[in-house]
């Protein structure tokens, strides 16, 4: 997954929005991947929480948790603690857990980290 698409965040004029929070970045990210043709589902409800974004890309499923001005490790811990990948195991696809932190000062992706679920 190419995270250079974060340039799109930087290219948005600051006058277009006033509140750069997680929901703002989440929406822009979702629109970018959806517009590119990726099967993306936002705000997927589970019995233990809500997955920010699930992307189905070929033989891979990406379970994504967004954070704003936090650690990507916090995002990955939430995915694991809430068992977000459980519903996708057994489908014969590789499951990638992806934490993305948006940096409001930089107005861009500040950090990201991916891990293979290893249990898919």
Q: Any chance you could write out the topology, listing elements then pairs?
A:
Blueprint: H1 7-11, H2 22-35, E1 39-46, E2 49-57, E3 60-68, H3 72-81, E4 94-103, E5 108-116
Parallel strand pairs: 3-4
Antiparallel strand pairs: 1-2, 2-3, 4-5
Q: How would you describe this structure to a colleague?
A:
The chain has 120 residues and is α+β, with helices and mostly antiparallel strands. It contains three helices and five strands. Strands 1-2-3-4-5 form a five-stranded mixed beta sheet, sandwiched between helices.
Keywords:
24% helix, Trna Endonuclease, Chain: A, domain 1, alpha+beta, 3 helices, 120 residues
Give me a quick take on this structure.
By secondary structure, the protein is α+β, with helices and mostly antiparallel strands.
Query: Which architecture name does CATH use?
Result: 3-Layer(aba) Sandwich
How many H/I helices? 3
Overall mean pLDDT:
85
Calculate the terminal CA-CA distance, rounded to whole Å: 19 Å
The main pleated sheet reads as:
5 strands, mixed
Structural class comes to: alpha+beta
Summed up, the domain count is 1
Kindly state the number of beta strands.
5
User: Strand order, biggest sheet?
Assistant: 1-2-3-4-5
The shape is globular
Rg to the nearest angstrom? 14 Å
Briefly, what CATH class?
Answer: Alpha Beta
